[in-house]
Amino acid sequence: MEATCELIADCGFWGLSMQDVADRCGLTVPGLLHYVGSKVGLLVAVLEHRDREDAKALRVHLGVDEEHVPDEWSDGGPEGVDLRRLCAATMRRNAGQPEIVRLFAVLAVESLNPGHPAHDYFAARQARVVSSFAALAKQLTDRPELLARQIVSMMDGVQLQWLRDPGTIDLVQEWEAAAEALFGRL
Length: 186
Description:
single chain, mainly alpha
């Protein structure tokens, strides 16, 4: 999974070669296909792996155990965690995994094409994130969906700037400044 994540982050799904993945893993292409079935199967495995790893890392940043955080964006987020805290923990987690964030950014953009195999995954994920954030935002505003979309947009934008210039942009500090603009006015 790690080798595939690195390769997709470097060249995207369309530029991914099963031969390159097999070579990095010390396998033949037929051996790799035995485990994943196809290139699309490999992409699905990468996305599922990313979701599991992200959820584990988020639990650590929130200081809660597995039972309290089934996944990152479930029905309003983890019990007892407010929206601002969830967003801050997410950004702290992401600051420690730039390759995964880059993988996500590359795939998210590629999957804007309805023909991309991850198109439905990213559309559903965005809907879950906005819905979860909106559920938490109901305590803050009478326009929770709007705030949820603004937060997602701000998080994505700050992360893209950080990925472009990680040497001069501190993702956590940038997010805290953005969060103050978003939440401070509430």
